[in-house]
Amino acid sequence: MHLQHIRHSTVKINVNQFTFLVDPMFSSKEELEPVANAANTLKNPLVDLPIPIEGILNNVDAIFLTHSHRDHFDDKAISKVPKSTQIFCQPEDRLKLLELGFKNVVQVNDQIEWNKVNIIRTGGQHGTGELAKQMGPVSGFILKAVGEPSLYVAGDTVWCDEVLNAIKTYSPNVIILNGGEARYLTGDPITMGNKDIELVSMAAPNSEIVVVHLEAWNHCLLSRAEINNNIITNGIENVKVPLNGEILNYDLKLIY
Ligand SMILES: [Zn+2]
């Protein structure tokens, strides 16, 4: 399995000769307004894509959408992704995608099989308490294919029972976490911070953990350097923080 971290939560996955794209967000640097009520007023995204959109979409067999907030599926992606593309989404986003003109939208209720790839939807909490309710439903996905490492894309969630359950139930070999500790001026963070990442690392000591959703959106305040410093300080060995465009390879034989 190869992963290419593109930017923010956009990740390209090669598994079982198929290519999947998670949460396409294609806007150019500073093309979008800042998130309001945040600690800064920087326009989004904070950085440009590391490769051209055409290269990102090249060979993509299907898209996974964890939820439809604009930092995960923006107007540029809506216009650039061919309308015939196979999209897997949470039930709550199906109608919106159909209304946008996408023709091959499959909502994953619990799990489905697609070309011998097992796709399992997982839950999450986009924050805590009332704020999580306001943020709306979010999902993650687990991908399993024979002979390939299993992958858990957690999506926009903080550490919560749903994440723990996904780890305990499916023992994924590789886990992608959305870090950045996104937050508003008031309220708790709505994506993972260092403590959440540590808790995932402790719950999944044999998994390779990859942290994305960093340094690209104005209310994501936790930096790569802060995560890397925490990893070193606490001797955490199974967490990686890729740069935009970085490719990671996982071979089942090397993981076990
Ligand atoms: Zn997000």
Describe this structure in words.
This protein is an alpha/beta fold and 256 residues long. The chain has one domain (2-242): Ribonuclease Z/Hydroxyacylglutathione hydrolase-like (Metallo-beta-lactamase, Chain A). 23% of the residues lie in helices and 24% in strands. The chain has 8 helices and 14 strands. It has helices at 53-57, 75-80, 94-99, 129-135, 161-170, 194-203, 224-233, 252-255, and strands at residues 2-7, 10-15, 18-22, 62-64, 86-89, 104-107, 111-114, 117-122, 140-144, 151-153, 174-178, 208-212, 239-240, 247-249. A 7-stranded mixed sheet has the order 6-5-4-3-2-1-14. The protein has a 7-stranded mixed sheet with strand order 7-8-9-10-11-12-13, with helices on one face. Strand 4 (62-64), helix 2 (75-80) and strand 5 (86-89) form a beta-alpha-beta unit. The chain starts with a strand and ends with a helix. The mean pLDDT is 96. It binds zinc ion (ZN).
